Amino acid sequence: MKTINDFDFKNKKAIIRVDFNVPLDENFNVTDATRIEAAKPTIAKIIADGGSVILMSHLGRPKGVERKYSLGHIVKKVPKFLVKPYIFSRLYRH
Which DSSP state fits 24? Predict the structure, then answer.
């Protein structure tokens, strides 16, 4: 079986569905970053190869657009292990 280490991501883009559905406190601070940290080796491997990543996730189970379910709350935790500039984009359904 092939693993991520069998691929070279130089000049490639990889879309990764990550599990960043992490617990937040009442001030929207991440209280347990274990799931974010678990994605680090995969993201780091792609970046180290010279590729770029597109991360996709969700937060909670919103019934529509609700600020408390924005991944914007966790963005400050992710860049700790990204070595390249990043862009955070929101996709809203209406």
Answer: B
* C-beta neighbour count of 71 within 10 angstroms: 20
DSSP 30-60: BS--HHHHHHHHHHHHHHHTT-EEEEE---S
| SS3 at position 71 | helix
Task: Tell me which residue of 39, 32, 73 sits closest to 55, measured CA to CA.
Answer: 39
Q: Is there a contact between 52 and 85 (Cβ–Cβ < 8 Å)?
A: no
Q: State the Cα–Cα distance between residues 45 and 7, nearest whole angstrom.
A: 10
Which pTM was predicted?
A: 0.78
Name all domains of the chain by residue range, CATH numbers in brackets: 4-81 (3.40.50.1260)
Q: What is the dihedral of CA 79, 84, 85, 86, to 10 degrees?
A: -60
DSSP state at residue 14: E
Q: What is the pLDDT of residues 25-43, one digit of tens each?
A: 998 888 998 998 898 899 9
